[in-house]
Amino acid sequence: MTSSDSPFDAPLRIAGKDYHSRLIIGSGKYQSFQQNLDALVASGAEMITVAIRRVNLGQHAGEPSLLEVISPAKYTLLPNTAGCYNAADAVRTCRMARELLDGHKLVKLEVLGDQKTLYPNVTETLIAAEELVKDGFDVMVYTSDDPLIAKRLEELGCVAVMPLGAPIGSGLGIRNPYNIRMILENATVPIIVDAGVGTASDAAIAMELGCHGVLMNTAIAEARNPVLMASAMKKAVESGREAFLAGRMPRRLYASASSPIDGTFF
Predict the structure, then answer these.
(1) CA-CA distance, 197 to 175, in Å (whole number)?
(2) 47: which strand partners?
(3) Are 20 and 208 in contact (CB under 8 A)?
(4) Measuring CA to CA, which residue among 110, 92, 35 is closest to residue 66?
(5) How far is CA 247 from the centre of its chain?
(6) Are 105 and 98 in contact (CB under 8 A)?
(7) How many whole angstroms separate alpha carbon 118 and alpha carbon 152?
């Protein structure tokens, strides 16, 4: 049983569809499509993000296609615009994905600022998000951890806002939990930490903050044992979610005895 199956929680709903896993994994950096599938199964994830510019979904005839291994009938494919550095390229890439996937509307928008940091170009992201929403796409959007930008992207009609925990592929974990908390306080759409997770404890922290999900790729794909790490991430996301729902004890400066002193016999 996952935390989402418990009576204390509801499924994660994105663009009108319910997901019982709050973990989303990627499809880059794996040794093979089969290893990617094995990690996907171990993770329990129901959604997998795919870089249209880097992964063959049929646009390169005669080459192995991810769709031959990972079935769109079983998993939700989340085409993303990785490698795009301006709004025009990102919009064009999403439209290509829609053609390749027979009208598929759910996309992950990311517009990068430069190749060294892979930090989001917020200005171009806002332009692309507005155009894609007007064009009928369901947009899950990668952005900075700026609470004002996150709210603006929600106002534009994005179905999920995905602030970074740390730079893409850095494995540094959640560097600014306070901004993430401010984003969560003002959000009415799912907030999913995207980028920066390095190990299971990072995923648990994101979920303990109240995030609705976590997206990761490098943390699993570059682990010494990707399939085992995928399994660890599954458990971390579930336990972090349950801890958030349970409500942690208050932090105290001084000790508080586990066994009360009042009412003792002697």
Answers:
(1) 10
(2) 24, 76
(3) no
(4) 35
(5) 23
(6) yes
(7) 21
Strand partners, 51: 80
Whole-prediction pTM: 0.91
Query: In one letter, which amino acid is 81?
Result: T
The strand ranges marked E within the chain are: 12-14, 17-19, 23-25, 47-51, 76-80, 106-109, 138-143, 160-163, 192-194, 213-216
- End-to-end, the C-alpha distance of the chain in Å comes to 45
pLDDT of residue 2: 47
The least confident of 9-13, 49-53, 235-239 is 49-53
pLDDT in tens, 61-81: 777 888 889 988 999 999 999
Q: How far apart are CA 24 and CA 220, in angstroms?
A: 11
Q: Which of 17, 105, 108, 116 is catalytic?
A: 108
Joined tokens for residue 177 = 């939990």
Distance CA 212, CA 18 (A): 12
Amino acid at 111: V
Using alpha carbons only, give the angle 166, 110, 113 rounded to the nearest 5 degrees. Answer: 70
Distance, in Å, from the CA atom of 13 to the CA atom of 160, rounded to the nearest integer, reads: 10
Alpha helices in 74-225 (DSSP H): 87-100, 122-134, 147-156, 177-186, 200-208, 218-221
Tokens of 211: 């995030």
What's the sign of the alpha-carbon dihedral 192, 196, 200, 206? negative
Give the distance from CA 266 to its chain's centroid.
55
Give the closest residue to 35 by CA, choosing from 219, 200, 227: 227
- The verdict on whether 105 is a catalytic residue reads no
